[in-house]
Description:
This protein has helices spanning 2-24, 28-59.
Amino acid sequence: MSALQAKLERFEILANECELIASRTLDGSNRELYQRLGGHYRELATDMRAVIATIDATAA
Protein backbone atom coordinates (compact mmCIF):
# COMPACT_ATOMS: atom_id res chain seq x y z
CA MET A 1 0.00 0.00 0.00
CA SER A 2 2.80 2.44 0.74
CA ALA A 3 4.08 2.00 -2.83
CA LEU A 4 0.72 3.18 -4.15
CA GLN A 5 0.70 6.10 -1.75
CA ALA A 6 4.20 7.04 -2.90
CA LYS A 7 3.06 6.99 -6.53
CA LEU A 8 0.08 9.16 -5.65
CA GLU A 9 2.31 11.70 -3.94
CA ARG A 10 4.71 11.67 -6.91
CA PHE A 11 1.87 12.33 -9.38
CA GLU A 12 0.68 15.24 -7.23
CA ILE A 13 4.18 16.71 -7.03
CA LEU A 14 4.65 16.41 -10.78
CA ALA A 15 1.26 18.05 -11.42
CA ASN A 16 2.16 20.95 -9.13
CA GLU A 17 5.55 21.40 -10.78
CA CYS A 18 4.04 21.39 -14.28
CA GLU A 19 1.41 23.92 -13.26
CA LEU A 20 4.08 26.13 -11.73
CA ILE A 21 6.20 25.98 -14.88
CA ALA A 22 3.13 26.71 -17.02
CA SER A 23 2.33 29.79 -14.94
CA ARG A 24 5.87 31.14 -15.29
CA THR A 25 6.61 30.49 -18.93
CA LEU A 26 6.20 33.23 -21.52
CA ASP A 27 6.04 30.91 -24.52
CA GLY A 28 2.43 30.01 -25.30
CA SER A 29 3.20 26.59 -26.75
CA ASN A 30 5.29 25.61 -23.73
CA ARG A 31 2.58 26.92 -21.41
CA GLU A 32 0.00 24.74 -23.14
CA LEU A 33 2.31 21.73 -23.02
CA TYR A 34 2.90 22.05 -19.28
CA GLN A 35 -0.78 22.72 -18.58
CA ARG A 36 -1.75 19.56 -20.44
CA LEU A 37 1.01 17.58 -18.74
CA GLY A 38 -0.09 18.87 -15.33
CA GLY A 39 -3.66 17.91 -16.12
CA HIS A 40 -2.52 14.43 -17.10
CA TYR A 41 -0.68 13.99 -13.80
CA ARG A 42 -3.79 15.23 -11.94
CA GLU A 43 -5.84 12.56 -13.70
CA LEU A 44 -3.30 9.91 -12.75
CA ALA A 45 -3.43 11.08 -9.14
CA THR A 46 -7.24 10.90 -9.18
CA ASP A 47 -7.11 7.39 -10.61
CA MET A 48 -4.54 6.36 -8.01
CA ARG A 49 -6.76 7.69 -5.21
CA ALA A 50 -9.61 5.56 -6.56
CA VAL A 51 -7.40 2.47 -6.63
CA ILE A 52 -6.26 3.09 -3.06
CA ALA A 53 -9.86 3.61 -1.92
CA THR A 54 -10.93 0.38 -3.61
CA ILE A 55 -8.14 -1.57 -1.95
CA ASP A 56 -8.96 -0.03 1.42
CA ALA A 57 -12.66 -0.90 1.01
CA THR A 58 -11.83 -4.46 -0.01
CA ALA A 59 -9.47 -4.93 2.93
CA ALA A 60 -12.02 -3.69 5.45
